[in-house]
Amino acid sequence: MDIGERKKQILHSVINEYIASAEPVGSRHIAKNLGLGLSSATIRNEMADLEEMGYLEQPHTSAGRVPSDKGYRYYVNELMGDYQLSLKELNMLKTMMQFQLGQLDKVMKSAADFLSQFTHYTAFATAPEMKQGAIKTIELVPIDVSSILIILVTNEGVMKNRRVMISPNVTVEFIHKFSDLLKEKLSGYTLEEINVVKIQEIKTAMQTNFEMLFPILDFISDIIEDVRKETDVYVSGTTNIFNFPEYSDLDKAREFLEFLDDKQSVTKALKEPEIAEKEAEKAPKKAKETGKDKAKVRIMIGKENQLDVMRSSSVVTANYYVGDRVMGKLGIIGPTRMDYSKAVAKIDRISRYLNKILNELYFDDNNKE
Amino acid sequence: MDIGERKKQILHSVINEYIASAEPVGSRHIAKNLGLGLSSATIRNEMADLEEMGYLEQPHTSAGRVPSDKGYRYYVNELMGDYQLSLKELNMLKTMMQFQLGQLDKVMKSAADFLSQFTHYTAFATAPEMKQGAIKTIELVPIDVSSILIILVTNEGVMKNRRVMISPNVTVEFIHKFSDLLKEKLSGYTLEEINVVKIQEIKTAMQTNFEMLFPILDFISDIIEDVRKETDVYVSGTTNIFNFPEYSDLDKAREFLEFLDDKQSVTKALKEPEIAEKEAEKAPKKAKETGKDKAKVRIMIGKENQLDVMRSSSVVTANYYVGDRVMGKLGIIGPTRMDYSKAVAKIDRISRYLNKILNELYFDDNNKE
DNA sequence: TATTAGCACTCAGGAAGGTAGAGTGCTAAC
DNA sequence: GTTAGCACTCTACCTTCCTGAGTGCTAATA
Q: Domain A87-128+231-368, what architecture?
């Protein structure tokens, strides 16, 4: 069966209503509000068709209709318009964004906070992944007789540091020399390229009197290993889920909050949209949002998520960049009954803003080299 | 009315039962389990007395008795014994504690994680406060032509760093010289002592050709200001509250989780035991736990907490030290129906262990100076 | 005088039943 | 193709009733 214009209107209307009210939508209600001059009986017939086609569902016989995942997907791809942020919202965003232009990880944390406050959903931001970055500088800073600080900076501005203990016999001059050596040997390589073999190379290349510094190399090796494993993700506004009747059951709330507490699961859940998108790109038909001049906002609806906990939630994400390289992503998680057009508009706006900040901070001086 | 030996036994028994079951305890139950050879009627009379004295409460006429805050306080101060950790628990702790001896803030985060896993309550740890620490070293590390990294280390091993932009005209040698100057001028001062006036002093003492570096000083000023305001607190195991019927009401759970989400409130709640204790010390009678050779474990029960959200919860905390100085605290939050003796034993153990680690890491080299 | 048996009383919580209202599907008329 | 009308279904909510746990009080007992 083809989905006619009228059916589209009705579907659109049902979804809008349901997004706003969280109550199953009845035919009478649509007949009155849509203003098509149709009776509830006609709407009823159309809705029965839409249900047959899989766009709507009925919780039980005598309830109204509720959109299915398929319905939301159709809505997202074909029906919903671009939401225009109001002046009030823009001002709010502006005020929020004024703070905090310090360290990159703090910027990301703030971004997640803003997003959750701005959308009233649960927001997240993944920290920049370092492993693709090349080492820009590596520095050893003596702290006291028996410890030094190792500082790693990549060309994307990401920074890691760690304090390590060393033998008290090592002189400051020694450390400086060694620092220079490391800089020479490691600068320009990506963290992925620096593996145990590489470290071993340096060790053998070093003169024997550097031997007592070997522990430092091991520490660097450790740091890099840690960085590889690390998947920092900031989650903000977890308690926002209490705003939605979808989670008003204690067990559901618990399940969801436990999921959010486990950063690893969250990271996993966030990887999915990416994968799904790659698959989707093989298919000829492109999703609407990929075409436009916007940050590429991805949407995963309900069962499109692989993780069981996420089966009744939706995820909306966008990447953020330094230069042309994807650094990480940010987005929101909420019930499938999400205000998608608002969500997309808001995420789009924040991610663009974020890109601007990051590129001012880091990209300019990358270019100078 | 004086509290006789038998009443003590009954109170003890009621509280133990209630801690284990979360159900109001009836006279019949006590008569059977306590094995005093008394009938339920006698117990009933005694319980009525205990209620009159304020140690017990009745949710409603036909329910059993429940301990009041006063009851718990009496239990904690006078009745409960020292819980001995089982071998199984000790092994568990040992296994957990093997990980992660890296940065101080990570250690604290792990400590909170361990504590929550170990006790099954919600745990927290406050990050070390820097402001009492004296600056051990301050270092400027050039990162690229237009940015440098400022690193602050205090004698307690706490470290802060921040990347700042500078004019591209500044040469590396200049930065090094300036770095040395800062080291000379600021080392040994506590962060509290370094205020705007102090910074201004340095500015005027500097030769004019250092002028372009003034922004760096401002940044240092900023960092110090930030540090003053900062109250990092790690909260772990928030979803543990779902294990307790006390929070099985959605609104209560929500309220509590929102409270935990707001780090500022948490910090505030944690400061209270300290204040309460200071007041208590004025009074002649000392709480039991302050006397012994243990980490000083503090307990705040129910309404003893000032914050409204905390009125039906208890907080158990201990400080951790580097050398003789309190660096921060760690502890747990749970329902007033908490297994206090276990909680105290576990926190005591972890905080001692933590002290050991921290002092090995940091105190030894403090002494060397 | 302290303890206990006995009994009437209270109350929360669950089961059973009954009702109202929202919404449907179907049929027959327009 | 649309609509009015109607019988039907199902949930949500309310009321009522009942049970069981636990109490307080009284009178008898050691």
A: 2-Layer Sandwich (3.30)
> Does the structural domain A135-229 have CATH classification 3.40.50.1000?
no
Q: What letter does residue B80 receive in the DSSP assignment?
A: -
CATH number assigned to the domain with residue range B87-129+231-368, chosen from the 4 options 3.30.450.40, 3.40.50.1440, 3.40.50.720, 1.10.1740.10 = 3.30.450.40
Give dist(CA B247, CA A363) in Å, integer.
49
Fold annotation for B5-79? Arc Repressor Mutant, subunit A (1.10.10)
**CA–CA distance from B255 to each of A245, B316, B336 (Å)?**
16, 20, 16
Strand ranges (E), chain B: 56-57, 66-67, 122-126, 135-144, 147-154, 159-165, 233-236, 297-301, 313-322, 325-335
- For residue range A356-365, list pLDDT tens digits in order: 887 776 655 4
| Spatial distance from the CA of A259 to the C1' of C16 (Å) | 40
CA of B87 to C1' of D14 (A): 56
- Residue B289: other Cβ atoms inside 10 A: 20
Which strand C nucleotides have any atom less than 7 A from protein CB atoms?
A: 3-6, 9-12, 21-27
| Enclosing H/E stretch for A123 | strand A122-126
Domain boundaries, chain B: 5-79, 87-129+231-368, 135-229
Would you tell me the crossing angle of helices A214-229 and A196-205 to the nearest 10 degrees? 160
Pick from A145, A155, A163, A359 the residue to mutate for testing the B interface (most B CBs within 10 Å).
A163
Nearest nucleotide to the CA of B45, by C1', is: D24
Note whether B143 contacts A136, CB cutoff 8 Å. Answer: yes
Is the minimum distance from the CB of B62 to strand D below 7 Å?
yes
Sequence-separated (6 or more) residues with CB below 8 Å from residue B57: B51, B65, B66, B67, B68, B71
| Least confident residue range of A323-332, B51-60, B157-166 | B157-166
Flag whether pLDDT at B79 surpasses 50: yes
